[in-house]
Protein: THAP domain-containing 11
Organism: Paramuricea clavata
Amino acid sequence: MVRADRCCVGPCDNDKRCPKRLVVMEHVEELKWHRFPTKDENRKRKWASLVAKGRCEFVPTDNSRICSNHFPDGKPTNKNPNPILYLTLDDYRHPKKLNLRESPSKKRKVSSCSPQPSCSTMDEQEECSENPIPAIDNVNIAIAMQFAQITRESDVRFFTGFESTKSFQEIFNFLVPRARLMKYWEGVKRSSGVEREEPNQQRIDTIILSNVYAEGSVLPINKPGPQRKTTLEQEFLLTVMRLRLGLLIKDLAFRFQISTTRVSQIWITWVKLLSKELRHLIIWPSKGQIYATLPDAFKRFYPKVRVIIDCSEVFLETPSSLEVGAYLWSDYKHHYTFKFLIAITPNGAVSWISPCYGGRTSDVFIVRNSGFLDLLEPYDTVMADRGFKIKSDLTMKRCYLAIPPSAAKGNQMISDDVAVTSKVANVRIFVEKAIARVKWFRILSTELTMLELPLVDDILIICCALVNLFPPLQAEKIDIDT
C-alpha cells in the first residue's frame, strides 16, 4: 500500500519519514502535504495530468500527496490552485520566476547561490526583486533508467545484447501481451500459499506462467493493488541488461530506483517468460536447409556435416552442501560449475542446447542422456573434439563422427593425421566462436549464485536465442569481445 508520507511528484524526494532530507523552496513558508481534491473531479484530473509530466502512467490514490514546493503560493489558493512548479527534471534545471504577493517585511531574500539576472534599469531591478528565483540547493534528483536514454546503436548492443533498437522493440512488442498476464514471483510460500520449501524450476514455472498460458486468458483492464513504479519496458530492459552485463541486484536497484527485492522479483519472473517465449528461436534445421547454407570451408572438406557439438562450463559459487558440491565440482576447471552441450549448424547458428549438468559429468554421458542422439538422421555427420568418444553410439544411428585423430602414446602423428587435424580445426573453430558469442552475455562469464541454480537452463536458452538474432558467423564484422 502506498503511504501518504511522500510527495508523489516524480523528481521530488520529500518524505515525512526523513525530516533531515526535506527540501523547502524559497517561496514556501511551511512545508505541508496536500491531498488530491475529492469533490472536484475536474480539478483532480488536472492535478493528475500535471504530476504525470514527470511520472509516466501516474494514477492518484487516496494516499497520494503533493508537497508545498509545487504550488506557487506554497499551497492551493484561489489564484493558483494547481501544482505547476518543479514537476519535471527540466523544471529544476530551469526554474520558473514566481510572483510572490507578500508585504516588503515578509519578502524572502534570495539565496546568494541562486542565479540572478543582471538588472540595468530601475524598473528591471524592481521586477527582479518582486520575482525572485527560488534556490534549489541540495535537491536530490533520482531518475529511473529507461530505454530512451540509450540513443546510439552501439550502446544498444553493449547494454542489451540486441543488434539494434528495432530488434529490441520488436521482441518487446512480441512479449507485451504475455507480460501483462504473468504473475510476479514472490517466493514459494507467498506465490502459491503452500508451506515453505526449496524453490525448484518446475514450481517456479507453474506459479509464474500458470496465468499466462491458461486457456481463455484475456488481458486484464485494471490490475488490483498499487500502481507499479516500473513499466514493462523498464522491466524488460532490466532483465536483458543483467543478462548482457552480469550486473548485481543492488546495482540494478540503484539504476532503476527500486528495491533489491523488487529487482529479484522482476528478474526471476522475466527470465521464466523469456525462456518460454524465445526458445522457439532455437531451431533444428532440416538437411536441405543445412546444405543450402553450407559455408565454403565445409563444402570443400566436410560437405555432409549436419552439426558441430561441444561442451562448455559456467562457474558457480561454493555450495554449502558437500553432496551438491561433489556433483558440481569440475576437475577440468578446478571450480564448481555446471556443464551444457551445445550444437551449432555449420554457419554458426545455435540449433540445440542440452539441459545443464553438474561439472563432474562427462561429455559422453551428456551426449547419451540429453536426447541429442534422437535428433540425428541416417548418414548425418557430427563434428566434435577428440574427447567425444561416441563413435559407437553414432554407428548405431548409422551416422558418422568427424574428429581429429589421436596420436599413439609416446609417438608422433603421421603426416596424414596432421593434415586431417588441420582440416577439422579450420572448420571446427565455428563452434568455439558460437560459444564465445553465448558467453558474450556476461551473466554466463561470472560466478552465479546457488539461488540462481533453478534458473540456469532458462538463462542459457535466452542467451542462445538472442545469439541466433545475430548475423551469421562468416559475415560477422563486430568484435564480440567489446
User: Anything to note?
Assistant: The domain at 282-468 is CATH 3.30.420.10 (Nucleotidyltransferase; domain 5). The chain has three domains: 1-112, 144-187+230-281, 282-468.
